[in-house]
Every structure is written in C-alpha cells, then in structure tokens.
Amino acid sequence: MIKEGDRAPAFDLETDEGGRVQLRDFADRTLVLYFYPRDNTPGCTRQAQAFTASRKAIEKAGGAVVGVSRDSLKSHQSFRDKCKLGITLASDPDLAVHKAYGAWGEKTMYGKKIEGVLRTTFLVKNGKVARVFPNVKVDGHADAVLAAIGALGGSAKPAKPARKKSVPDQAKTAVKKASKVLARAKKAVAKVVARGANKGATRKSPRK
C-alpha cells in the first residue's frame, strides 16, 4: 500500500454520472478517494450514505469524495438511485487503480485468507497522499475524514463563539444604553420647549 507522502498514482475511470474522473480534476481540492468492496452490501451502503450526508461539509472544507469499486456502471447507478447517494462512484473493473493504491490484497474473511478489496481511504492533496486510513471501520469514518481534511488546512474556520459578558461589562453596557436614551429624551424635550416658546413669542408680538 502506498504511504503518506507518496505521489498519488494517476487514474482515469468512468463514473455513475456517465463521465470520467481523473486525479488531475482535483488539483485545487483535497480528494477523498475511498475503495470499498461491493455495491448494495450493508457496510458499503452505510459508508456511502455517511459520505453523502457529510458531502456538503466536506466540500465546504475544500474536499471532494470519490468512491471506487470494481462494480459495473450499471451496478453503481442502481446503488446510487436505490440509496439516494450524492457522491461520485467510479468503476475499476480490472482492479488497476485498486492495485496501484494497494487497496487489493490478502485478507482474512470468516477465518480464511482470501484476496480481495481492502477497505481503505486516501486523502490526496497537491498530487500527494496526505493521509491513509487502512482497515476502515465504517461507523464514524466520514466524520474522521472530515476532521482530517480540516487538519490538513484550507478548511473554513469555525465561527468563534460569542464571548459572554461579565456582570461588570453588562452593567457598563446598560448604563451606556440608559445614557443614550436619556440624551435623546432631553433633546426631544428641548425641541418641544423651543417650539412652544416660538409660538408664544409670535402671539405676543404687537401688530404694526
């Protein structure tokens, strides 16, 4: 399996959307490239749905998600529609990209050693592998990936919580507000008095 810091292998795969996806498409983003065993299986479904739910947050942080399996495009499209997925699914039927990234190999299943897909996620930034998540446990994985994208930099900074004012600060604010209200009231009274004085002076002025 390739390691963090290695140059990410280039790829060019067909997607469920009818187009193609290449590594160079993500030159200005952090690519979340995840390899999964099979469409419509319980773990793979939960993983895809979790990435779909986190997609907007991941994109806001400067990332993009692409799921890769050896399933056909028809299988991907059915999987997408059935589970209402909102992420790109790429087909790698000859396992060329799986093997380039080291996401295919020997694993133990039901006590037997077999060759198969190694559920793995790679974060690729500036053409290099920035993070590797081997032996992925599905639950909570999307959140861990989102946090990792933020740690790599380029993510939107969370808004700072409003600072709670201390009691003295609150008192000062209240006094300032009261002073402003009093000043406005004094001005209003002065205007009324001035208008009254002007009217009185007009009535008292002798006729010529």
Written overview of the protein:
It is a single chain. The protein has 208 residues and is α+β, with helices and mostly antiparallel strands. It folds into two domains: 12-152, Glutaredoxin (3-Layer(aba) Sandwich); 165-202. The chain is built from five helices and nine strands; from the N terminus they run E-E-E-H-E-H-E-H-E-E-E-E-H-H. The protein has helices at residues 42-60, 73-83, 96-101, 141-152, 167-204; strands at 12-15, 20-22, 30-35, 63-69, 88-91, 104-109, 112-117, 120-125, 128-133. It has a seven-stranded mixed β-sheet. Strand 8 and strand 9 (128-133) form a beta hairpin. Helix 1 (42-60) runs parallel beside helix 4 (141-152). The longest helix is centred in the last third of the chain and has 38 residues, at 167-204. It is elongated. The termini are far apart.
